Amino acid sequence: MSEPAVPALARLRERIADRTAVVGILGLGYVGLPLARRFTEVGFRVLGLDNDPGKVERLAAGQSYIEHIPHTAIADMRAAGFRSTADLERAGEADALILCVPTPLDRHREPDLSYVTGTMAAIAPVLRRGQLLSLESTTWPGTTEEVLQPVVAERGLAVGRDVFLVYSPEREDPGNTRFTTATMPRVLGGVTPACLDAGAALYGAAIERIVRVSSPRAAEMTKLVENIQRTVNIGLANEMKLVCERMGLDVFEVIEAAATKPFGFQPYFPGPGIGGHCLPIDPFYLTWKAREYGLHTRFIELAGEINTAMPEHVVAKLVAALNDRGRALNGARVLVLGLAYKPNVDDCRESPAIAILEHLRAWGAEVAYSDPHVPTFPLMRRHRFELASTPLDAATLESFDAVVLATDHARFDFEAIRRHARLVVDTRGRYRTPAANVVRA
């Protein structure tokens, strides 16, 4: 038996098809702003909503605050009708609302959905019949139906008839030039078949491939599995690094040799830890939810422990290297190279470089950083450093007792760093040829 016709769905699909639908993006960060840009590019009028007035003001002035989105792109968006506001009550103007808000962990490493629940509370009074509501924030399986759906129901709106509720996990990868918002396949789960149809109509208008799954819970789990697989493999690579260090082996040589096998091996490389909004956080959303089902996800938690411990390992290697040179870390001047969590971007969320800075400060070191992508230390909830990026030249490098290569940006002159630094602690395997002033970590 076919599903009964849903008049609100038909009207919404028509508005999406003829581009008269207004798309509201809630949260204009590394996920929301690129998405707003994409929907603007394909002809939608987009309303960006963010409770940070600073972001709203910069966008209104045609300025971008994300490095890989140029100011000209913001100007183009505004010329096409994009507008931004800090007034979340204007969410009622949108036919489709997409939540792209943070889902961090609290200090006990448990899910913090306060941004999601706070946003839903703010927009609840203006939710109306005929709207599509999509959650993109990474979360535990069940969030869409257990947290968002009750808010809709409290408004007297029926999901699947009046309002269409879906989950589509973000797959934004800052700095990735191979896959863009438009070309990255999108997983989509709807609470009802009508919800799924509405979501597919919207996302299909802006993204090349939509992968439909059976439910929001399946889509929520998909996102966690993607990132947990990567986290576990990086944890294994980091553990192999520790083993190879003890055995006097070059872990990068070993992994590169293993990668010549044409099947069954995917290379993952070690580093100073893991960063970004996804990898350090997503596994703990699943471990938390699994406890509800009486399961202890030992494998996932072990990988998290290994990766979380890597910044401390880096500092321990620095302590030993300075000690060999008759210098204590307490009072030493240490320059951390790279503040972003991965090369060639300005994104510092959960960066292991910041954890390294915290450890260095706790040891009593005088710290500084250099990052061509991050001119000043960003405002963060849990970390505060009154620092600006230190320009690199020979005299600067020579003035520090040690430099720690935390993020290997392409704009760094690695040969000049090796030549002029007194001591280099290399966490990225950039220096493969042994040198008296280079220590692997």
How would you characterize the overall build of this protein?
This protein has 441 residues and is of the alpha/beta class. The chain has two domains: 7-214, NAD(P)-binding Rossmann-like Domain (Rossmann fold); 262-440, Rossmann fold (3-Layer(aba) Sandwich). The protein has 14 helices and 13 strands. It has helices at residues 7-17, 32-41, 53-60, 71-79, 114-123, 143-154, 193-204, 216-247, 251-258, 282-292, 298-324, 352-362, 394-399, 414-420; strands at residues 22-26, 45-49, 83-85, 96-99, 132-135, 164-167, 186-190, 210-212, 333-337, 366-370, 402-405, 424-426, 438-440. It has an eight-stranded mixed beta sheet with strand order 3-2-1-4-5-6-7-8, sandwiched between helices. Strands 10-9-11-12-13 form a five-stranded parallel beta sheet, covered by helices on one side. Helix 8 (216-247) crosses helix 10 (282-292), helix 8 (216-247) packs parallel to helix 11 and helix 11 (298-324) packs across helix 12. The mean pLDDT is 95.
